[in-house]
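During the reporting period the student researcher (J.K.) took over the structure-prediction task from the postdoctoral fellow and processed the backlog of single-chain submissions. One of the processed entries is reproduced below for the supervisory committee.
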Amino acid sequence: MWSAFKIVMQKLMHQMIDGMYMDEEDYQLLRRRLAFTGRLVPLYSGEEAFMRLAKREEYGDIFRLEQLAYDGKSPWHKEMFYKDLNRNPRTIYIIMEYNGEKIAFLGARTTDGYDLHISNICVLPQYRCLGCASALIVQLVQFAEILAKKEITLEVRQSNSKAIRLYQRMGFIKTGIKPEYYQPEKEDAIEMTFELQRAL
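J.K. obtained the following structure tokens:
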């Protein structure tokens, strides 16, 4: 039931995005509100990485990063990243770099409501457990405060216990289940929510 509904809603969303045209003014509007030029963040290794907002033309780099993180099988098609970065003025993509190499990213979407929804978090295998995902989430919380959002939401595979523990440490709580959300495996998704009043 839910999986069929999800497919219909995804098609409607992509049709809506297809109909959008994001000119330079639309593109810069959200970036001006965030006023983020990038910053260095410490890793657990004692070294530093650099975080910044992704550029429109970097959709291919983000796709390749996700491919590398998922053994060549990206959950998203390259076209989906293109649409998110070039046609949807409500998306926020944060890239993390180390020695000039893109090692992680976070994708999120603003809504008309009071939440900011995380669509992707991806870290290259060799850079996991260094605090990359935590740093990306902390930065997104700061963006959510700037945008006057009250919650950050996400879905995670029920089997991804490591990610669930990370989100719980960061202050996310389980708020629901979406049966058979992930296809074709028909795996349930755990819905999780971070309330902005919670301290990281």
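The committee noted the following: The longest helix spans residues 2-18.
J.K. will present the remaining backlog at the next meeting.
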